[in-house]
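Section 3.1: Structural characterization of target chains.
Under the original work plan, the team committed to producing a structural model for every single-chain target entering the pipeline before any wet-lab resources were allocated. The record below documents one such target. The sequence was received from the expression subgroup and is listed exactly as submitted; it comprises 171 residues.
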Amino acid sequence: MIEINFKRSAFNTSISLFVGAILICSYLIYKEYNIPERIALSLFLIATVFVLIFRLKQLHKLYSSGNNVALKIDEFGIENNTQAKSYFISWSEISAFEIGHFRTRQIYIKPINPNHFPRKKYFGFYFTSKPELLWIDSDMIDIKRDELINILNRELHNYNNNNNSVNTNQS
C-alpha cells in the first residue's frame, strides 16, 4: 500500500489568500462605490466566503481525523481524500489518468464507464466538465504531480497485467 500525505502548507496558503481577498473586497464594498459595483463586489465576496468555508472544512477534516493521508493506493484501487468527500475507485473502473487542462495541476481519473459517475449541478448548472469525485487535487498532496502520475500509471498497468494473466489462465 502506498500512502501519500497532504501538504499542510497548501491549506495555509489558500486560506491566507482567501482571507486577504475577503478583506480587500470588504474594503472596496464599503468605499464610495455606486450600487451596481457594490452588488458585483458583494457577490464576489460571498463566493470567496463559500470557497473559504469549503477549504476550512477540508482543513478541519484533516486535523480532526488525525489522518494526514490524501491518497491511499493499493492493489484494489485508489482512495482519494483530496476532495470534499472521500472516495474509493477500484482499478477495474479506471481506464487511464489525464493531467488537468487549462493551467490546473489536477489529475483526472478517467473511468471506463463515465455514466457511473454523474456530474453535480449547482444552482441548476454544471460548473465542471467532469465529475468532481474523479479529480485528484495534486496541489494538496506532498508529492510532485509527475511522480504521482508515474505511480498511478504503474499500478494501473500492474493491475491490468495481473487481470489479463488471470483471464488467460482461466481460458
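The chain is about 45% helix and 20% strand.
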